[in-house]
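User: These chains co-purify. Model them together.
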Amino acid sequence: MSLSGEKAEEKKKEGKEAALLELADVVKRFETGAGTVHALEGVSFSIRRGETLGLVGESGCGKSTVARLVMDLYPPTSGTIYFDGHDIRSGDEKTKKARRARMQMVFQDPYSSLNPRQRIGRSLEEPFIVHRRGDKKERQERVAWLLERVSLKPEAAKRYPHEFSGGQRQRIGIARALALRPDLIVCDEAVSALDVSIRAQILNLLLDLQKEYRVAYLFISHDLSIVRHMSDRVAVMYLGKIVELAPRDALWRHPRHPYTRALMSAIPRAHPGRKNGERIFLTGDLPSPLAPPPGCRFQTRCPFAETRCRNEEPLLKTVEDEHWIACHSGR
Amino acid sequence: MTKLLSIRGLRTWFHTRAGVARAVDGVDLEIAPGETLALVGESGSGKSVTALSILRLIQEPGRIVAGEIRFDGMNLLTLDDRRLRAIRGNRIAMIFQEPLSAFNPVQSIGAQIVEAIRLHRRTSRRAAYARAVELLEQVGISSPDIRVHEFPHRLSGGMRQRAMIALALACKPDILIADEPTTALDVTTQAQILDLLKSLQTENGMGLLLITHDLSVVAETADRATIMYAGRVVEEGPVATLFTRPSHPYTAGLLASVAIDDLPPGERLPEIPGTVPSLLAMPQGCAFADRCPKASGAAGCFTKAPEFSAVSPRGEHRVACFLSAMSPAWRFPVPAERKTLPREMEEDEKIKAKEAA
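Assistant: Joint model of the two components:
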């Protein structure tokens, strides 16, 4: 087959495969006593089957709101979230339940997401009971297998959450997310609370599982190095908006948005004496999501802001193959 | 160089119902004026307990059972309370990870800085206020004359940490202990705070004890580092040496875990197997032995604790390991991929394939 033929074949494949998850212009606002919190303002992205999309940004940028919307924990104010081609809010309870089995979540703090009064075996069995899979014996076999899969001994099933270390609890959290063999796992700061020596164990586990089951990850983290290692594509968020979305290598080779560049230059390097170019210091603080600034949301801290940035909101537009930015200067 | 602070054989134990937890078990360290020493370790390694022991801020059931902490010719562990209070917050100051819980929520930050100044210096309230405004300006808080009247909850995380630093610097301390000062902050704010600490240190010539779990913060800011594991120091040396020629397998493992940027994305990472031993049930030999791929019975790793000894001719690089002659290229192995599909999962797989077809 000729090279162009191969490419066409690839294109066809991509075209045939609809996105597993798609967010279309999602807005989420919260009404509070102090006013309306503009948590998300028009967020759109998609994740393909077996792909990892990294979502980075600082605290308060709306990363976790995205995770909760995707898991259907609350409805968006406007916009639609599609899972495998269907609106996640559509269908009767039965369809919704079946859909929910296909998407799971791993939380930052595995301790608060496990029932402290339930043995681990029972917690892991729960998804099978809820979705009526297998009889008692089969369920127990699966629990044993899940524990083995995340490198825990079968005896762990008889113990309680407090008897485990942080890393072990996170593995239990992953085992539970894995139980129903989902197509999508949302990892919200899944390794942030773990010690560095344990982090590699969990990341390896996530990588293995993806290779084995072709599960897609929405990988949310504030740690750029980890996002880079895990993701195929990366979205950078700032104050409720995506400012840049690009394939991993393109983003690291040529970060275009001033915020992305500031974020990358701020990562301390693990090599004394080796710096990542000139550090761009951001002045000031994140503006309040109660009253986001007019125009570009980053204009109050952007070293390159011009008059246009203060008046007109930049739209997310493509600058290169699959590389999107929301910036007037488009550097 | 004369040492500003030196700790010898510090043991801080917690006498709990479940037994004695040796949180700090024989720690030695020294800080020279103008130097930044990083105290590195994971959760439960004893780094914060070491810092709190310096100012004798350990609470029951914790007790400092042995050791000596020398500061300016005094042993802080035997000093009477009045003289210790004259040092605390004055000549040795401390900043904490979560400034919101370290500040008094019902007093303005200005009032708290004034209190700290007037506790140790004989100045008028007015002069102390002027000094507070000056300090806030020095740490990069905009419109300090307004912010001085602000309550802690009104400030953002980065701002609050700056105010905390201003409070700690109020009496121009000789030593500043910073316990995870940037852990709760975002990366862009972290860069600002570390930069601020460095420049303030150059101005005042104070010694900085930086407690952190983040090796990249160490690489950026510290001159020397002390690595702790399960209550003991495992390695100590100049940062440049530690990062290029680590002598303890644990240090090497930590470095490999953070050098994630040097690996091709998506590839499996080298891991340190297992978990930290419980402080209540410490192994007889080296605490790291059962996670260490190099540990051997012949060397005595499982039977006796290794001595802390110099590995460099001038003695500035020291390590507690029987097998300290490590090659710089040594790495923790990347574990083999695990792949096992049980029977019923294979069936699931077939059903899924059918549905897709």
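Chain A touches chain B through 54 residues (CB under 8 Å).
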